[in-house]
MBL fold metallo-hydrolase
Amino acid sequence: MHDITNLAADEQVFTSNVFLVEGERTVLVDPGDEFDVVSKIESRSGGLDAVILTHTHHDHVGNTDGVTAAFDVDVWGFDPDHDLVDHEIGDETTVALGDYEYRALHTPGHKNDHLCFLREDGRDLVAGDLVFANGGFGRTDLDEGDHPRLIESIERVLDATDDTLQALYAGHGPTVDREPRQHIELALRSARMS
């Protein structure tokens, strides 16, 4: 079984998308902010094995303490010195999400600790705030934002994917399940032009 659900899909608050990846290792990718994610996890899976962060902007991590307290789980992320992160995920590390292994790609530019996760068979990309549907890309006007690095990170993700890619799970907005690689290409063009 491989099931990825956006628990924040119906929320009307300032939060990131919150992906529950169910399976052998049930993982929450980015706990989000300002809504009761704990009850949503309990109603879907009843349990949780880990929390994984794409990056540590508040809209992605505000609910972290509540989730870790409710499920007694550790938090994994790129920066082991961050207060919320218990375990480091290094660049090119393999991480289990649900029933599949994903390759972590360090993709700074939006934030220094930003990670994307590409499924081992290339079918799914958890993109955080690197790229969004319809050519959107992460803003670089916040602390640690760096537009040239963001472009390099988008290029890296584009190089790591091919036409096998079937779904792009972005940190905001809709999941892209029709020709997702074209949305990454469009994001790269848009970022280069801005």
